[in-house]
Structure formats: C-alpha cells, structure tokens
Amino acid sequence: MGRQLKWVTRGQRGANLIEMALVTTLLILLFGGIVDLGRAFHSYIVITNAAREGARMGSHFPDREDLIVAAAIQEAATSGVELLPGDVDVDFPAGADTAGNPIRVTVVHEVPMFLGGIFGYGTSLTLTGYAEMVIFGRDL
Asked: Tell me, what's the pLDDT at 1?
C-alpha cells in the first residue's frame, strides 16, 4: 500500500505548480486593477479639489480668469496631478459675473490606465470635476 500511495502523490507535484501559476496570474491582474482604480479615484479627488479652489478664487475675483485657472492648476500640482490651462473651464451659469450670481469651474483630466487594454476599458480614463460657488464681489 505504501508504494501505491507514493505513486499517486508523485503525479500531484506538477499540479501544485500549475495551480500556483494560474492563481498568481489572477492575483497580479486583480492587484493591477486595484492600483488603476485607486489612481483614478485619487485623481478625481484632486481635480474636484482643484475645481473647488478655482471657484473659491472666482467668487472673490470673477473677472480674473487667469487667477482662477492658476489657482486650480496650483491646487492640483500640490497633490501630484499636472493640469494644463486648457483643462480648466470657467463659466457663469446666470450669464453675468456680478455679485450674487454663481460661478462654475470645471476641470477635465485624462488619467492613463495601466491595465485598461487588458480589461477592455481603454488606455485612459477621462475624469471631470466641477465646483460652483456664489460670487461675493470684487476684492480688488
């Protein structure tokens, strides 16, 4: 009986290696997807904060679009996300930049995805964050 048991277990050695290779591959893909999702979520939080900072600047200086865009870019840069001036859009939903009207700052950012091609959701993800605040008046 000892010989028969030895013969059965000898054929199982290769199966463990194959199982480990399959499970490791799946775990690496899962971990990569989690990293991609985490990076995208971080970028979304950063661009939303950048839009909020731009709207805050715009609530005090609504006629200075250069300051609004610079505030949004600076806020994103402190968190490691690089924005270009074309990524920031300033809009006045009520049509005028007078006190009491809202100002809306929208930030659009492309996040490159490492495993996007493998999972079928593309090589980059477009994220949009916006913030809207009431214009207090000109502080100049």
From this structure: 55
